[in-house]
Amino acid sequence: MAFAFRSEQAIREEVFALILSLPVAWFVAATAMRAVELVCAVAFVLVVELLNTAIEKLADRLTMDRDKQIGRVKDMGSAAVGVALLMAGAFWIIAIIERLGFL
């Protein structure tokens, strides 16, 4: 985790988001369980980013040459991060809408 934090800007941003989500989730969430869910959604993004970083570092270790298949693998890892971000965003938006009384 320390190496990933030092070497990857995305990891630092997501750790910051996780730390920020801890107090904010308690204000946004209508229930304690919803607050836990919101924090877990942000933690899930961090987990997927760590896995993506591991894939990218391993791929770069195999070869620094342009390889079409390795490029696709890296793109799939990035897509997984994107999906995790969309999921987390949806959870937060729904929680905010719920808190405002629209759900």
Automatic annotation (TrEMBL):
<comment type="function">
    <text>Catalyzes the ATP-dependent phosphorylation of sn-l,2-diacylglycerol (DAG) to phosphatidic acid. Involved in the recycling of diacylglycerol produced as a by-product during membrane-derived oligosaccharide (MDO) biosynthesis.</text>
</comment>
<feature type="binding site">
    <location>
        <position position="49"/>
    </location>
    <ligand>
        <name>substrate</name>
    </ligand>
</feature>
<feature type="binding site">
    <location>
        <position position="78"/>
    </location>
    <ligand>
        <name>substrate</name>
    </ligand>
</feature>
<dbReference type="GO" id="GO:0005886">
    <property type="term" value="C:plasma membrane"/>
</dbReference>
<dbReference type="InterPro" id="IPR036945">
    <property type="entry name" value="DAGK_sf"/>
</dbReference>
<dbReference type="InterPro" id="IPR000829">
    <property type="entry name" value="DAGK"/>
</dbReference>
<protein>
    <recommendedName>
        <fullName>Diacylglycerol kinase</fullName>
        <ecNumber>2.7.1.107</ecNumber>
    </recommendedName>
</protein>
<keyword id="KW-0418">Kinase</keyword>
<feature type="binding site">
    <location>
        <position position="8"/>
    </location>
    <ligand>
        <name>a divalent metal cation</name>
    </ligand>
</feature>
<keyword id="KW-0460">Magnesium</keyword>
<keyword id="KW-1208">Phospholipid metabolism</keyword>
<keyword id="KW-0479">Metal-binding</keyword>
<keyword id="KW-0812">Transmembrane</keyword>
<comment type="similarity">
    <text>Belongs to the bacterial diacylglycerol kinase family.</text>
</comment>
<feature type="transmembrane region" description="Helical">
    <location>
        <begin position="35"/>
        <end position="55"/>
    </location>
</feature>
<feature type="binding site">
    <location>
        <position position="56"/>
    </location>
    <ligand>
        <name>a divalent metal cation</name>
    </ligand>
</feature>
<keyword id="KW-0444">Lipid biosynthesis</keyword>
<keyword id="KW-0067">ATP-binding</keyword>
<keyword id="KW-1003">Cell membrane</keyword>
<feature type="binding site">
    <location>
        <position position="8"/>
    </location>
    <ligand>
        <name>ATP</name>
    </ligand>
</feature>
<dbReference type="GO" id="GO:0046872">
    <property type="term" value="F:metal ion binding"/>
</dbReference>
<feature type="binding site">
    <location>
        <begin position="74"/>
        <end position="75"/>
    </location>
    <ligand>
        <name>ATP</name>
    </ligand>
</feature>
<dbReference type="GO" id="GO:0006654">
    <property type="term" value="P:phosphatidic acid biosynthetic process"/>
</dbReference>
<keyword id="KW-0472">Membrane</keyword>
<keyword id="KW-0997">Cell inner membrane</keyword>
<feature type="active site" description="Proton acceptor">
    <location>
        <position position="49"/>
    </location>
</feature>
<dbReference type="Pfam" id="PF01219">
    <property type="entry name" value="DAGK_prokar"/>
</dbReference>
<keyword id="KW-0443">Lipid metabolism</keyword>
<dbReference type="GO" id="GO:0005524">
    <property type="term" value="F:ATP binding"/>
</dbReference>
<keyword id="KW-1133">Transmembrane helix</keyword>
<keyword id="KW-0808">Transferase</keyword>
<keyword id="KW-0594">Phospholipid biosynthesis</keyword>
<feature type="transmembrane region" description="Helical">
    <location>
        <begin position="12"/>
        <end position="29"/>
    </location>
</feature>
<dbReference type="InterPro" id="IPR033718">
    <property type="entry name" value="DAGK_prok"/>
</dbReference>
<feature type="binding site">
    <location>
        <position position="56"/>
    </location>
    <ligand>
        <name>ATP</name>
    </ligand>
</feature>
<feature type="transmembrane region" description="Helical">
    <location>
        <begin position="76"/>
        <end position="97"/>
    </location>
</feature>
<feature type="binding site">
    <location>
        <begin position="10"/>
        <end position="14"/>
    </location>
    <ligand>
        <name>substrate</name>
    </ligand>
</feature>
<dbReference type="GO" id="GO:0004143">
    <property type="term" value="F:ATP-dependent diacylglycerol kinase activity"/>
</dbReference>
<keyword id="KW-0547">Nucleotide-binding</keyword>
